[in-house]
Amino acid sequence: MRRRSRSNRTFLGRLPLPERRFVADALRTETVGGMLLLAAAAVALVWANTPLRDAYDSVRDFHFGIEALGLDLSVAHWTADGLLAIFFFVAGAELKRELVVGELRHPGTAALPVIAAACGMAVPALLYGLVATSLGGTWNGWAVPMATDIAFALGVLAVIDTHLPSALRAFLLTLAVVDDLGAIIVIALFYTSTINLAALIGAVLGLVLFFHLHDRRRVHGWYWYLPLALAIWGLMYNSGVHATVAGVAMGLLLRVAKDGERGRRPAEQIAHLVRPVSAGVAVPLFALFAAGVSVTGDTLNDVVSEPEPLGVALGLAAGKVLGIFGGSYLAVRFTRARLSRDLAWADVIAVAMLAGIGFTVSLLIGELAYPNPTDLEHIKAAVLLGSLASALLACLLLRLRNTKYRRLYEEENRDDNADGIPDIYQHADSSPPQNAPRNTQQPDHPGHDDSGGPPAPITRRGR
Questions:
Q1: What's the whole-model pTM score?
Q2: Where are any strands of DSSP class E within 23-178?
Q3: What does DSSP say about strands 338-339 and 10-11: parallel, antiparallel, or unpaired?
Q4: Computed from CA positions of residues 12, 114, 36, 349, in that sequence, does the dihedral angle turn out positive or negative?
Q5: What class does CATH assign to 31-191+242-413?
């Protein structure tokens, strides 16, 4: 009987209450960050296309730092290698939390969004290769259209004022988290040319010390970890491996099991504290000094006529939607899952189009793949064009479905008895949360597991 219930999983069904609250808290900050990201990108484009262009270049290329430590970097490099390490730290913490206590801890639940995300990375890369090589180009930028920018996507949602259901928002978040992990693996494996073994060993030893203090000794206090994190980051940068790898590695080492003294999950608490810095400072500043592209008729002509930029633009605008929708549909078809009765496949297409906004990480990979300034300018323009096309198409579909979304949003948030728990989670005749057994008690009550799914066995404690 249990095996049969698993074969009839609901894709994009209602989230368990604790998971819904976690997603809402995470996306609330990312939405504000997305608005700042949009503003920073707009400022960069205006700044780079006015007579003040020379001032923009001067600020972006200004160097400062400690030369003796190999850290005399330009402002652009500090934002790309330094501030984005904070972004990837939060991504690593979110992934660790999802794998241990979130929706991704159940293989059956994780399979569908992970397959969709994997196809959403593979198809854009393949489409880029087909377009670029068929027109005489190279495979150099195959990884550029792989990424999804969750902050930019949420900023777009805020601008068009859509009431996207929590299940679709969680799906978008999962796509972005898996994409971030894929991006950091690609950066570490394919964009590392030389290795300083001594520095790399030092960075690894620093990570071991970080794990020992945080997980084994349960040491509290930011004053222990901030200097250690800076040392790990500096060593990773000097090792030749991209410095953002240090951020995601530390995020993945955070402990998820509840703190015995405080009753909180350190990975959730730390991510909650650091996320505003990531979304509100790190990512917008990176956008400010990475999105300053000269937008002219010649630049746009180069995007649609040169093999590599055209491959990037089509990879984002077409490859993402084909990969995510195709992966989702095939996964549902061959796992005997069923799409939530409240949604339609058009909703999956809309979210897949929204995932084609690959701004932040796509620009980062573009800078690594194309060191030549002229080539990089065209690739950045392609990222902007592909992301803009994806955003406009997604907005069109989402606005057409917004009446349906508004009704679902109101049902999800109705709380007539004002007890802080939406009524839909208390009705005896309502369907159980996605993939939860029918005899599972409602979570978030005393004595129940608050991880959002079936209670974990006592012998299987999260780390």
A1: 0.83
A2: 63-66, 71-74
A3: parallel
A4: negative
A5: mainly alpha
